[in-house]
Write a structure and sequence with these properties.
It is a single chain. The chain is of the alpha+beta class. It has one domain: Aminopeptidase, CATH 3.40.630.30. Helix content is 36%, strand content 23%. It has a 5-stranded mixed beta sheet with strand order 1-2-3-4-5. The longest helix has 15 residues.
Amino acid sequence: MDFQVRKASQEDMPSVLSLIQQLAVYEREPDAVEVTVEDLERDGFGENPLFNCFVAETEGKIIGMALFYFRYSTWKGKTVHLEDLIVNEAYRGHGIGFQIYKKVMEFAAENNLKRVEWVVLDWNAPAINFYKNTGATIFSEWNTVQFDEDSIHKFLKSNS
């Protein structure tokens, strides 16, 4: 299969959102996506973009993407967080995900980053195996911690 991996453009954001929604369905959270095309266009392509994105494309159709952004580690310095990497289900098994993943790692090397990190669900065996086979370390002793929007406001209200 012929495809190319390239930096995403603002015009790609409807397709990127569609892939994000596919990932949410796969991760058993079909109603969790709140971000809009307008959010992606504003936040990724303004004066101070909040994220970078690579897309895989074949015959003018976006079939995969990786969205990532800079972070700063107090232990390591400049790093990147890979938020999502997804390939349209109909196109899996052709090395597309690997090439997108490789493009993110090339970006990290070109920018002298100390680390690329991401989160994978513990039940997602295909992704876990893929990452392990590429040499990634999967930590079992760290837990992801989050406050959703409601929790932020409840916390602030109860601690004001």
